[in-house]
Amino acid sequence: MSSTVPTWEPRLLTAGDRWLWERQDLADYPAGTWVLSYSLAKADRLITLTATASGINHLIDVAAATTAAYPAGTYRWQAHVTSGSDRRTIGQGQIVVGANFATEPSGIDDRTHARRV
Questions:
Q1: Which of 46, 49, 67, 97 is the most exposed place for a label (fewest CB within 10 A)?
Q2: Strand order in the sheet with 35-42
Q3: What is the mean pLDDT of residues 31-43?
Q4: Predicted model pTM
Q5: By C-alpha distance, which of 116, 117, 110, 37 is closest to 72?
Q6: How many other CB atoms are found less than 10 A from the CB of residue 101?
Q7: What Rg do the C-alpha atoms of the chain give, in angstroms?
């Protein structure tokens, strides 16, 4: 059984999972001429993702071994395309990177910040 590759940025990703999506809506910025990149940022971390060409589309495919090192949290993201020295921002939003429960040695404390304090 094959799964469908999402065509938009997901709202939730999990550290330790393979991250995969394909932007098919960028006909004005075809892969091969333009490179799509994402910057995911939170207060103490910046993650950069660079797409590869999938025909004229842009494919984000990040190995599980790579995402395992990404800390959980809410990230703001910004997507941009570049061609030579030309850079254009094409979108922005928010993504939540969830913890990989299987790698949490003492479980997950899902209380709110107020409850923990």
A1: 46
A2: 12-14, 86-98, 73-83, 35-42, 45-50
A3: 97
A4: 0.85
A5: 110
A6: 10
A7: 16
